[in-house]
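To: structure desk
From: M.T.
Subject: fold request, one chain
Message: Could you run this one when you get a chance? Sequence is below, nothing fancy, just the single chain.
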Amino acid sequence: MLHHVKTDEIGATFGAQVKQARESLQWSQAELAKQLGHALGKEVNALVITRIEGGKRPVSIVELVALASVFKTTPGKLLEGVEVDTDHIEADRAVGRWVMREAAARRALGDLAGFLRDHPHTRETIRASLFRTVGEEVDEIMRRLDSAEFPEPSGT
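Reply: Done. Structure tokens follow.
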């Protein structure tokens, strides 16, 4: 399922991380643009850095990795503080588990149907026992006792 992503907040948080990393190196936006351009193998305008830091420009994964390389850090470090709305994740997982269990149950029922098709005696035994009440079960035991299917214990 699709999760809600707050793009404005992500851009602002990521931009603040980039700005903090740039300022810790005492670089201007023009210097960062030059370094990023070198890492990407193309020219990058300082306005790009202004827009990234202001949360106004999305960054591709390639640019994220290049920025991390320029700052000698990891992409994850630059993404610290970026949050995704995860309210629905557990519900999504529960639905996924349910779907998997339903599929497994359907396979098991298919296997059982095949087994019962191949074993008609077992099928009839199960069918007969499924529709009996406890009273009917007791009556059957009593009938068997009366017909000597269960012999009386021998005396001592």
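Reply (cont.): Residues 143 and 149 are 9 Å apart (CA to CA). Let me know if you need anything else for the meeting.
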